[in-house]
Design goal:
heterodimer; A: mainly alpha; Arc Repressor Mutant, subunit A; 0% strand; B: alpha/beta
Chain lengths: 149, 142
């Protein structure tokens, strides 16, 4: 009887590799084909096995990862919806908007409006706040530069 | 209880820094907001996936009225000399991370080397900030 040349690795290990790829590289133009290739399986076989192992289709998993990141970017940045779409590895703003709305029940714009503006996250250093809080014209004529704080 | 949230590094160009930290180091954007009324001050933070409560703020060197040209010049000087600050990163596999980062065009100052505490390498970001990339040795109890 022939001896196997390679140690048998549990199939789930290959699926996990594909899942890790989705988690780490979702911002790149990555598709289910790439994930299947990372798992070393045909696309159909891969999709079936992935769903069995993780309870979700690889397409669904990748899309959800992207949409969750998009939601975070909508809350914490002032980037346009189109920019957010491209930042998470998606190429069609129309598809992104539809998928997002279907998943979150609100369009990206409406979702963003539900939260405090992104600027609420900006921790502006004290020296910046004070510098822009000063009157523009110095009232002390003996010193041309603003008085030190 | 107080916790460390955000550490700051000076950067010459926030867009360039953002591309480096996200595309080459694999970090994510945590916040990116520009305030027009504060001279377009841009609060830009990044962090590694999996360390959601820690981030690095990529701070542009402000000009007037926040900093006078002399002080801004002092900061640029320190950066040019490589003394503006260091970020210490850990990794499970220093040699693998080294190969991966080098393939993405990261400039290393020191290749992975054995040290008492583990395997350590050094690189710089586009602004000249130092980075240590360390695979910490598991210490067995005595």
């Amino acid at each position: 009887m022939a001896v196997a040349k390679t140690t048998h690795v549990p199939p789930a290990r290959h699926l996990l590799r594909a899942k890790d790829l989705a988690d780490a590289h979702y911002a790149e133009p990555l598709g289910v084909d790439d994930l299947a290739r990372a798992a070393g399986l045909s696309k159909a076989h891969f999709s079936r096995e992935f769903r069995r192992a993780f309870g979700e289709s690889p397409h669904g998993y990748l899309l959800t990862r992207r949409l969750e990141r998009a939601a975070a970017l909508l809350r914490t940045t002032d980037r346009s919806v189109a920019d957010v779409c491209f930042s998470v590895g998606l190429t069609s703003v129309g598809s992104f908007t539809s998928s997002f709305t279907r998943t979150y029940g609100l369009s990206p714009t409406a979702y963003r409006a539900r939260f405090p503006p992104a600027r609420a996250h900006a921790v502006v250093p004290g020296c910046v706040v004070r510098a822009y809080g000063r009157p523009q014209r110095s009232t002390f004529r003996e010193d041309s530069r603003p008085a030190p704080d | 209880m107080m916790r460390i949230s955000t550490a700051q590094v000076w950067v010459h160009d926030q867009d360039e820094a953002l591309a480096f930290y996200t595309e080459k180091l694999g970090m994510e954007v945590r916040a990116d907001v520009t305030l027009p009324e504060m001279g377009n001050f841009r609060w830009l933070t990044v962090g590694p996936p999996g360390q959601e409560d820690v981030s690095i703020v990529l701070m542009a060197i402000p000009g007037e009225p926040v900093l006078n040209p002399e002080t801004a010049g002092e900061i640029r000087n320190l950066m040019a000399k490589g003394f503006a600050g260091t970020v210490f990163l850990t990794t499970d596999d220093c040699r693998a991370s080294y190969e991966q980062l080098r393939a993405r065009g990261v400039e290393f100052t020191e290749e992975p080397e054995e040290r008492p505490y583990g395997i350590d390498a050094g690189f710089r970001d586009p602004s000249g900030n130092s980075f240590r990339l360390t695979q910490v040795r598991q210490m067995a109890p005595a």
